[in-house]
Backbone:
């Protein structure tokens, strides 16, 4: 039996892999272009009462299947050995995501109308563009700030960093705080054999639960602010914020201390004896980061600009964010970004996955919006758990908006004790709004896709060599650690 030369044995698999990679990239580009063309078709289309039309179709469950399949793909495909490396490419994620988003639009075109599909695609695009530009700008600007030096990654110091992150999440947004702190935290703990739990708790606290106190802290709260919730109202949620983040920090300290002791002093000797303190590089980006947050907080399409009184046109805010991100790239030496380990791969992963997710989610969001009032949700605890559960698998920002509307329909539309007047002349019960806000923000941490920064932090940590949990194992972490704390907060504060 003749044997193939070794060089041929080595080249065929790589050639086959290269061909598959090129095919995936081309197919992903075609799928993304088709989705974009359908969305742009929506500029000239209009479907009245789109959500009601979708919910009225008896086959709406079939229309929800692409969304469900996409969630399952995110969870299961990385665990299939034969597809693991294929899924690592962002082009593969883009292909799957856009293909399933297009499948949802095909159902809309066949069951409702072509105009309905185009209008839904336009809705998805209108949500996706501001979402990804906000994340991209915060990612680029915060990626230009590098913390040099070193500190002893003791359990006490790690807990302190997470606590600082919980506060910064309200001032910089959960994305800005996450991108600023995750790399220094990973670098400080690089000598440790157990780092997974540190990143998981980082996602819990800095990327989600910390950002409850200001509208700029988390996208759902910002959407509430744009819909008339007073800017300072979220400060009234300081008690559940303190309870949840305090409890998570205590649990983290206990877990980290135990694993610190298990690793042994020999593993930590260098960190303890060679700590030099932190130095910050790229401080100009801190100013840009503040400007970006102000742009998000103060510039709203269709509303007067502060001090000027001129109505802000569409995409002005996004244009400002793009300019700030571009300026950050220009003024920041590449050496600083290299020290920070900056790469566009993490934000590319988020952009790829959410590209089709915003299309596929239009149908389940329509069903919830049209039938939400019939779900029997009439208590704060019910609003907390149903908003939170859906925020875990849907993006938490649109989920917040849907249940804000549901709460509005169940609130007497006049001033009374316990009722909050909104800027648009509507009213909502304080306890309903508190439950919806806490559910959307806290339970965005339950899965990797619950909030935008989750996937970025996971990708950065994986690039740094951290053995990050799979989609299912991460949910196991959140069910064991976060869920009991959330059950307690709902019983104590939201009854």
Residues:
């Amino acid at each position: 039996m003749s044997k193939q030369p070794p060089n041929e044995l080595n080249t065929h698999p790589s050639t086959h892999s290269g061909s598959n990679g090129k095919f995936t990239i081309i197919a992903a580009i075609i799928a993304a272009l088709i989705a974009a063309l359908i969305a742009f078709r929506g500029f000239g289309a209009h479907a009245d009462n789109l959500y009601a039309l979708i919910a009225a179709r008896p086959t709406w469950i079939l229309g929800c299947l692409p969304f469900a399949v996409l969630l399952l793909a995110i969870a299961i495909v990385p665990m299939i050995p034969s597809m693991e490396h294929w899924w690592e490419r962002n082009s593969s994620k883009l292909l799957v995501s856009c293909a399933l988003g297009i499948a949802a639009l095909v159902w809309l075109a066949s069951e409702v109308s072509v105009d309905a599909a185009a209008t839904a695609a336009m809705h998805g695009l209108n949500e996706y563009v501001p979402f990804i530009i906000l994340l991209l700008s915060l990612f680029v600007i915060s990626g230009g700030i590098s913390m040099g030096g070193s500190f002893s990654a003791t359990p006490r110091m790690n807990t302190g960093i997470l606590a600082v992150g919980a506060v910064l999440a309200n001032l910089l947004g959960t994305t800005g705080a996450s991108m600023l702190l995750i790399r220094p935290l990973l670098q400080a703990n690089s000598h440790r054999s157990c780092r997974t739990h540190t990143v998981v708790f980082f996602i819990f606290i800095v990327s989600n639960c910390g950002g409850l106190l200001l509208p700029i802290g988390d996208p759902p709260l910002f959407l509430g602010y744009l819909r008339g919730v007073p800017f300072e109202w979220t400060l009234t949620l300081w008690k559940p914020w303190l309870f949840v983040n305090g409890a998570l920090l205590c649990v983290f300290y206990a877990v980290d201390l135990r694993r610190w002791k298990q690793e042994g002093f020999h593993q930590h000797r260098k960190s303890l004896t060679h700590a030099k303190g932190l130095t910050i590089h790229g401080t100009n980006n801190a100013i840009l980061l503040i400007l970006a947050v102000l742009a998000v907080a103060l510039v709203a399409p269709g509303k007067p600009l502060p001090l000027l009184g001129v109505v802000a046109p569409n995409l002005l805010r996004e244009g400002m964010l793009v300019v700030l991100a571009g300026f950050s790239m220009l003024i920041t030496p590449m050496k600083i970004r290299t020290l920070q380990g900056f790469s566009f791969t993490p934000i590319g992963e988020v952009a790829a996955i959410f590209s089709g997710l915003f299309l596929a989610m239009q149908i389940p969001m329509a069903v919830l919006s049209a039938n939400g009032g019939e779900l029997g949700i009439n208590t704060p605890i019910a609003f907390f758990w149903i908003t939170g559960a859906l925020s875990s698998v849907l993006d938490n920002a649109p989920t917040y908006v849907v249940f804000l509307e549901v709460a509005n329909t169940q609130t007497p539309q006049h001033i009374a004790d316990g009722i909050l007047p909104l800027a648009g002349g509507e009213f909502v019960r304080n306890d309903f709004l508190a439950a919806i806000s806490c559910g959307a923000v806290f339970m965005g941490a339950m899965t990797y896709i619950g909030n935008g920064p989750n996937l970025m932090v996971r990708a950065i940590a994986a690039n740094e060599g951290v053995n990050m949990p799979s989609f299912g194992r991460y949910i196991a972490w959140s069910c064991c650690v976060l869920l009991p704390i959330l059950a307690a907060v709902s019983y104590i504060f939201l009854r």
